[in-house]
């Protein structure tokens, strides 16, 4: 909804509304601002409901008291789970074929939680989408062109550069060594149709002082922070997009409905091995007829610092490693003594039915907010002086994308265990870290390509091989290399 026009009457109404909520300090410097600054502050403040911000903050700082007895945690029931590691090949093939069929019917969409700029990760993932479309088109030969729409969620600060990157434009200081040839190779929208790639922003929430007050970044600007990956839900519901269907489909969910989408794959950008719009995962989830499903990888060991997907008090949930005692973490599976009982590591890789997301107004308001205590540069609203804190002076509010898991029944939730080496290699650390950095991600891509080529009967002369997603989605289509020696670095 568009904000009320900027005029003296509406400004006064806004001042009264914020003052009534005990947040009048946000207008402390209003009279000293230029007309343009006054309007910018007014419009920014119109994006928030101060009473609601107070309520969110209160609930986050004083969450409901935990039960006196510890929660009951168990692995998810077998009826809700499957594993690529030990499923029958016929089951995997059936899920794959169902997933391809759904893709060929244009019933599948992809949502990317990008947040930061993905650089070449965007290209890898775009090419996987293109390959999935091609496989479905060839398999089922529909009269209509197969399309997997790609909805890319960014944060406010990265929106502009993300759009420029997708447009094939120069990013200047971010990619200072990129040549014109590099940009031409990348191309606009990585070969995808522009109208099928829609970029939208997640929301923001004001930063709150330790005293519960909305903080100012400058005299005419509120300090804000992204509302967490759980902000995905509100953004799907409310954030504006440019839809080829026009104003009547100007949000993600409305565009999906106009396209006839029924199944959605959502994931985080930093996983270089992610199988975007994975037919197996789509088919598995659709066959289960669940509202929500998630992929997991097997926990490396009992001490790995990962959240776990499990059943908590009879509901699906995510429990952080710090919430589980060592005895529980080290417990073994009674049926498989060589593996951990609690081993389903969360990798933020989810399936949603469209019907479930389209009905989120029934549960979205129930999602909790979490706090992160931070050092937040700000302006002292009494003195007007800039403050550069040396210790945490406020909180940022955020939601987690899995906060809705425990609102589902176990029979409406499913979990698919996949091979870590094939599907999970996050790029989130600097090269000084041991794992999950640029070097390990590159090595995992090269190792995967070498496995695929060797499985097809090729002899790989180098240590590692990059297989373009346009050549193969998941190891298929490499038969022509049977008996050949491959000395190239990439195919």
TrEMBL record:
UniProt KW Nucleotidyltransferase keyword? yes
* Pathway this chain belongs to: Nucleotide-sugar biosynthesis; UDP-N-acetyl-alpha-D-glucosamine biosynthesis; UDP-N-acetyl-alpha-D-glucosamine from N-acetyl-alpha-D-glucosamine 1-phosphate: step 1/1
Q: Where is this region: Disordered?
A: 62-81
Keywords for the protein's UniProt record, in alphabetical order: Nucleotidyltransferase, Transferase
Which Enzyme Commission numbers does its entry carry?
Answer: 2.7.7.23
Q: Which reaction does it catalyse?
A: N-acetyl-alpha-D-glucosamine 1-phosphate + UTP + H(+) = UDP-N-acetyl-alpha-D-glucosamine + diphosphate
InterPro entries given in the database record: Nucleotide-diphossugar_trans, UDP-sugar_pyrophosphorylase, UDPGP_fam
Q: Which CDD domains match?
A: UDPGlcNAc_PPase
Q: Which domain of life is it from?
A: Eukaryota
Basic and acidic residues composition-biased segments:
62-71
Member of which family? Belongs to the UDPGP type 1 family.
Protein name in UniProt: UDP-N-acetylglucosamine diphosphorylase
Q: Which organism is it from?
A: Apiospora phragmitis
Q: What is the lineage of its organism?
A: Eukaryota, Fungi, Dikarya, Ascomycota, Pezizomycotina
């Amino acid at each position: 909804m568009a904000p009320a026009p900027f005029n003296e009457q509406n400004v006064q109404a806004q001042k009264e509304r914020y003052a009534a909520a005990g947040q009048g300090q946000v207008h402390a410097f209003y009279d000293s601002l230029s007309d343009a600054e006054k309007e910018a502050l007014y419009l920014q403040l119109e994006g928030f409901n101060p009473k609601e911000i107070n309520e969110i903050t209160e609930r986050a700082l004083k969450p409901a008291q935990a039960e006196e007895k510890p929660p009951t945690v168990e692995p998810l029931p077998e009826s809700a789970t499957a594993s690529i590691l030990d499923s029958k090949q016929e089951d995997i093939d059936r899920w794959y074929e169902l997933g391809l069929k759904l893709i060929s019917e244009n019933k599948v969409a992809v949502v990317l939680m990008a947040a930061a700029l993905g650089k070449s990760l965007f290209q890898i993932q775009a090419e996987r989408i293109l390959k999935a479309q091609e496989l479905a088109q060839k398999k089922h030969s529909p009269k209509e062109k197969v399309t997997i729409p790609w909805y890319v969620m960014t944060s406010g600060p990265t929106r502009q550069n993300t759009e420029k990157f997708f447009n094939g434009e120069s990013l200047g200081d971010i990619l200072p060594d990129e040549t014109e040839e590099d940009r031409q190779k990348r191309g606009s929208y990585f070969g995808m149709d522009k109208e099928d790639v829609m970029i939208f922003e997640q929301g923001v929430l004001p930063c709150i002082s330790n005293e519960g007050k909305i903080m100012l970044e400058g005299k005419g600007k509120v300090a804000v922070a992204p509302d967490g990956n759980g902000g995905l839900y509100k953004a799907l519901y409310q954030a504006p997009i440019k839809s080829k269907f026009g104003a009547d489909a100007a949000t993600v969910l409305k565009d999906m409905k106009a396209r006839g989408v029924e199944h959605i794959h959502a994931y985080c950008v930093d996983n270089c091995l992610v199988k975007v719009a994975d037919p197996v995962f789509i088919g598995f989830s659709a066959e289960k007829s669940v509202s929500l499903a998630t992929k997991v990888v097997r926990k490396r060991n009992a001490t790995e610092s990962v959240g776990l997907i499990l059943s908590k008090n009879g509901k699906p949930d995510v429990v952080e490693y710090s919430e589980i005692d060592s005895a529980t973490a080290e417990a073994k599976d009674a049926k498989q003594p060589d593996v951990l009982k609690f081993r389903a590591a969360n990798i933020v890789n989810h399936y949603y039915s469209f019907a479930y997301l389209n009905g989120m107004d029934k549960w979205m308001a129930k999602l909790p907010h979490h706090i992160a205590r931070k050092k937040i540069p700000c302006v002292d609203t009494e003195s007007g002086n800039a403050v550069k804190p040396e210790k945490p002076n406020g909180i940022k509010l955020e939601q987690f994308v899995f906060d809705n898991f425990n609102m589902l029944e176990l029979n409406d939730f499913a979990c698919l265990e996949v091979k870590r080496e094939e599907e999970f290699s996050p790029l989130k650390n600097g090269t000084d870290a041991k794992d999950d950095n640029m070097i390990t991600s590159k090595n995992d891509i090269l190792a995967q390509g070498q496995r695929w080529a060797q499985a097809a009967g090729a002899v790989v002369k180098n240590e590692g091989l990059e297989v373009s997603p346009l050549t193969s989605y998941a190891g298929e289509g490499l038969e022509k290399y049977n008996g050949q020696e491959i000395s190239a670095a990439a195919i």
